[in-house]
Design brief:
alpha/beta; 4-stranded antiparallel beta sheet; 595 residues; binds arginine; Gyrase A, domain 2
Length: 595
């Protein structure tokens, strides 16, 4: 299924070719000056340059050669030779009909589906999920859905952080709490009462201790290495911590409407590490570096300036080498990431792996990707870091609670739900709902507000956390979009109750034109979101579509109109609801039945 811009481009390319002009200059796009025309081609300028002729002359010959088609009358000419096109009402109605009937609501699928892994979420065991993982989860979930919707075979993987230094830290903290691990019964009893709250308070205090207390830090490092070597009781303790964290994180992900196909973690790549290290060794890629083992990934001329502790500036290789085995013999963050690539190539044979992770980890991924390509595990182009900015507080710094701590995801969702209940009551929504339905709607409104606020910014842009603004029923917000979708549902329900059916679409009123054009825009928005791995293009589309519907609803009464006009408007409303619901679903946002 092609959108109107593609159809116009094809027709225009035929005209260009018939005039002996390079058809590549014939591209027609949505106009950014809709007052002049809905679609525009400015290729006459480039075509004129190539032909050594004047742009207005070329534009005139193109316009003259455009015979009246079903798609659009000959273009008008603006400025130095811009061609402006206006779609015929019949072509617009045909496109709206196609969208109304299409399961993909007018979107084209990929020509050659690929196998794609989306690595996102990435919470850490022993740390509760906090707002830092919120963006990874929201953006990753949307990207996964977008890729899948366009026809790729997609696996979402949570890639739990469950194999690093933090495990050594909490193991040592527990050891100190129990006065050693000699009493096996005591340890067993303690592990049975382990809670996420305990881990969450143990981790930061152990991390703080390790920063000051060198002996404690060394013990934690050794404990990490011992765990990875399979020592007891380290393994048993790790398993207990892992399970407690995992259960809590599954609960948080479910509340957020985020789901994974693979619930794997760093530890799952552990069995592959020894053979991988041997392989890197055998390929001559491992080097000794003060007792550690590294892979150099910088090219011969890739250098950066580095300031030493004494203030002197030296040139060092850039990116830094990848640390594969620490001097204690343990696997590092990069080691598990590299081994996970080996694992994924073995198990899923991906054409592409997208890592939806904070953009501050860009250097880490560059090291890992280069090492993987150097070792021949996968092509460098198959690995992509989809970075994002931070969610900030009013002070412009990464968001913290008033007490200065990280806000737990569960608490954030709770706060949003509370606000959603308030707003629903203020707007006199749900007074007649059962308590259960009211709660369900409040939850959906809360999640829509949080997710849409995030996804309406380009992922690379940081934004300020402002629950009041996110939760507004007006403007570019999740609740506004839900409200619009629900309003269409209610119109369609009433029509059904009155026995009114949809019929052939006809485009008469300006507002009907605008709505049909908005519907046509879904394909391009989805394509751009896919290509740029940027859901905000879809968020923008959802808003444009909702606004176009709002204009349509104001100017074109649906139920009070009659006959063929009413049937056409009902069909337009149904197509809008389908596409809006789909778009919101691609953003990970669910629409309630009524509100
Ligand atoms: N656990 C990591 C963190 O909290 C994120 C994991 C991202 N994914 C990856 N393959 N490294 O920073």
């Amino acid at each position: 299924m092609t959108d109107l811009a593609s159809a116009l481009t094809a027709a225009n390319a035929a005209v260009f070719a018939s005039l002996g002009l390079d058809a590549r200059h014939a591209e027609v796009r949505r106009s950014d000056r809709p007052d002049l025309g809905e679609f525009q081609c400015n290729g006459a300028l480039a075509a004129a340059k190539a032909a050594g002729r004047k742009p207005p002359e070329i534009a005139q010959s193109v316009a003259a050669a455009w015979s009246e088609t079903a798609l659009a009358p000959p273009p008008s000419i603006a400025g130095p030779g811009f061609l402006n096109f206006t779609i015929t009402p019949a072509a617009l109605a045909a496109r709206a009909k196609a969208i109304a009937e299409d399961a993909h609501a007018g979107a084209a699928l990929v020509a050659a589906p690929r196998r794609v892994i989306v690595d996102y979420g990435g919470p850490n065991v022993a740390k509760g999920m906090h707002v830092g993982h919120l963006r990874a989860s929201i953006i990753g979930e949307s990207i996964k859905r977008i890729f899948r919707f366009r026809g790729d075979q997609v696996w979402g993987d949570a890639h739990f952080g469950d194999w690093g230094f933090q495990m050594g830290l909490v193991i040592c903290a527990l050891e100190d709490e129990l006065g050693g691990f000699v009493d096996a019964a005591k340890l067993r009893a303690r592990l049975q009462t382990l809670t996420l709250e305990h881990l969450e308070s143990a981790y930061p205090s152990a991390a703080a201790k390790a920063r000051e207390d060198v002996a404690f830090r060394d013990r934690a490092r050794k404990a990490t290495a011992a765990l990875q070597a399979g020592a007891e009781p380290h393994r048993t303790i790790w398993r207990a911590m892992h399970d407690v964290s995992m259960a809590a994180q599954k609960r948080d992900f479910a509340a957020l409407g985020v789901d994974f196909d693979l619930w794997l973690g760093e530890s799952d790549a552990d069995p592959l590490i020894p053979s991988m290290v041997a392989d890197l060794e055998q390929k001559g890629l491992l080097e000794d570096d003060q007792g550690a083992r590294i892979v150099r990934v910088a090219g011969p001329n890739e250098k950066k300036k580095k300031k030493l502790d004494d203030g002197t500036v030296v040139e060092v290789e850039s990116p830094d080498p990848l640390l594969v085995v620490s001097s204690e013999g343990s696997a590092m963050y990069g080691t598990t990431d590299l081994a996970t690539i080996v694992q994924r190539v073995r198990d899923q044979q991906p054409d592409l792996i997208l890592y939806v992770v904070d953009q501050r980890q860009a250097d880490h991924f560059e090291q890992v990707y280069r090492a993987a390509a150097k070792a021949g595990y996968i092509a460098r182009e198959a690995l992509e870091h989809v970075g994002f900015g931070t969610m900030n507080g009013a002070d412009g710094k990464p968001f913290k609670t008033r007490a200065g701590g990280v806000l737990k995801l569960q608490d954030l969702i709770g706060q949003a739900e509370e606000k959603a209940r308030e707003r629903l009551r203020e707007n006199e929504i749900g007074g007649d709902f059962s308590a259960e339905e009211f709660e369900d709607v409040a939850h959906k409104v809360a999640i829509a507000a949080i997710k849409f606020a995030d996804l309406s910014n380009f992922r690379g842009t940081s934004y300020v956390f402002d629950l009041d603004r996110f939760m507004s029923f007006e403007g570019k917000t999740g609740p506004y979009l839900l409200y619009q979708a629900v309003r269409i549902k209610s119109i369609l329900r009433k029509a059904e109750e009155q026995g009114l059916a949809a019929g052939p679409i006809a485009i008469g009123h300006e507002a009907e034109r605008a709505l049909a054009l908005a519907l046509d825009g879904f394909d391009a928005a989805l394509r751009t979101a896919y290509e740029k791995r940027a859901p905000h293009f879809l968020a923008e589309h959802a808003y444009t579509l909702a606004q176009a519907f709002s204009g349509f609803y104001t100017h074109c009464p649906i139920l009070p109109s009659e006959g063929a006009v009413r049937a056409s408007r009902l069909a337009l409303a149904a197509a809008t609801l389908k596409q809006l619901t789909l778009t919101l679903d691609l953003l990970g946002v669910a629409v309630p039945d009524r509100m």
